[in-house]
Amino acid sequence: MDMFINGAWQAAANGEIVEVIAPATGAVIDTVPRGTAADADAAIMAAAHAMEDWKRRPMAERVAIQKRCAAAMRAAAETVGAALHEELGRPLPACIAEITRSADLLDVYAEEGLRLSATISLGSAPGEKTVVTREPVGVVVAITPFNYPVTLLMFKLGAALIAGCTVVAKPAEDTPRSTLMLAEIFFRAGLPAGVFNVVTGKGREIGMAMVEHPVPRKIAFTGGTAAGKAIAAAATGTMKRVTLELGGQSAAIVCADADLDKATTAITRHGFANSGQFCYRVNRVFVERPVYEAFLALMVAKAGQLTLQPAGGEGDLGPLVNEKIFANSAAQSDDARERGARILLGGARQRGAGFEGGFYFPPTLIADATQEMLIMREETFGPVLGIAPVESAAEALALANQSRYGLAGFVFCRDLAKGLTLCEGLEAGSVWLNDIHRSSHYVPFGGMKESGLGREKGRYGVESYLEYKTMYLSYEVPS
């Protein structure tokens, strides 16, 4: 596939390509252009030209177009989902669900656009009015990761388009095809040429060229903390706005009075979804000692039922996307083992027929984990869970907050007052009590500390693509 710029397919200026690899087999399934600064400039200038018209479209018209794009996504869900399944390795039903749920977010953003308004102060003197309005921030660069490439793009694209911005997207090298397909689908659904452009290539080669380009006014990035810091530093050169959703090392606290069946079901489902490849998954668990062994037994039973999907077969979990991501799970498991932890489940690469060509790591439970272990300090981004006993909920809260990350937190406790107190005490952007759901499309999502800056979703997401403008109006009052 080629890049999609100004409503047309386009190869890289230098003609170079990058191979797209199927993580289940290691086979090359496609190629995309290895874009350069020249390609980034072409896409950005197309977006800047298109924005002159797009920002002036009435909100009702932008809403109607965005809703057509959402409908087109749903109609193409199986086709785009199949491409995503091939390039990511996640089981096909989950890939199709990602497309349809992302379309729902486009609709939510469209509805939020209809609720935007300007205000006029009532404190003005006769013959004066002060109007506070909001305008689109400008051309947006959206840089997205491999794990939920469509969902995390829609976090940014849906909000930007409704605000009146145009977008240049740079998908991850591992999963570019689903994003490229959507660019053409949206164009055919009525999104004007240049409003949504997609460039591909190596992150540091084309990504930083976009970040440092003088025209874009905002960078929206989801990815690792180190990369996010580099983007934030580069963006200061032209004072670009940034929204950064970065790493997580999210902790769950399980109190002695918790419903263990419900807690272990939720933690198993959330900790191992997408083979652990998402930012706000449960990464570490602190369990009050009276129920520690019972908790472990239930986790082993439930996580042990999850199956890996071999190449061409069926299963609950797919492979990890590449060798780098795989190596992190292996290294954290080995580190815990060497430091005296109990590996209750998994802990080593899956071998056998259907698994040899891909990066398969089974659900892994590490018991008796300590703060010195990597699993309790660093983001895993894989199907590995660290579990530690604590003497009290207060100790669990202190350990949970001993992290440079602050994306999500989870509490299981029947005592509502105690549970709410723990939720309030967790230093995290989103906290769940007594269950774990998908993050809602209607409320803000983002992190504290080194987990990022800004919020996405709902009206909060749309507002992050708008600038306030104050207009002071004077006129003669008729006598």
TrEMBL record:
What InterPro entries does UniProt report for this protein, alphabetically?
A: Ald_DH/histidinol_DH, Ald_DH_C, Ald_DH_N, Aldehyde_DH_dom, Aldehyde_DH_Superfamily
Is Oxidoreductase among the key words of this record? Answer: yes
Keyword annotations from UniProtKB, A to Z: Oxidoreductase
- The residue ranges of the Aldehyde dehydrogenase domain are 9-470
The residues forming a coiled coil are none
UniProt-recorded Gene Ontology molecular function terms: oxidoreductase activity, acting on the aldehyde or oxo group of donors, NAD or NADP as acceptor
The record's family statement is: Belongs to the aldehyde dehydrogenase family.
Under the heading PANTHER family, the entry gives: SUCCINATE-SEMIALDEHYDE DEHYDROGENASE, MITOCHONDRIAL (PTHR43353)
This protein's name: Aldehyde dehydrogenase family protein
Species of origin reads Paenirhodobacter huangdaonensis
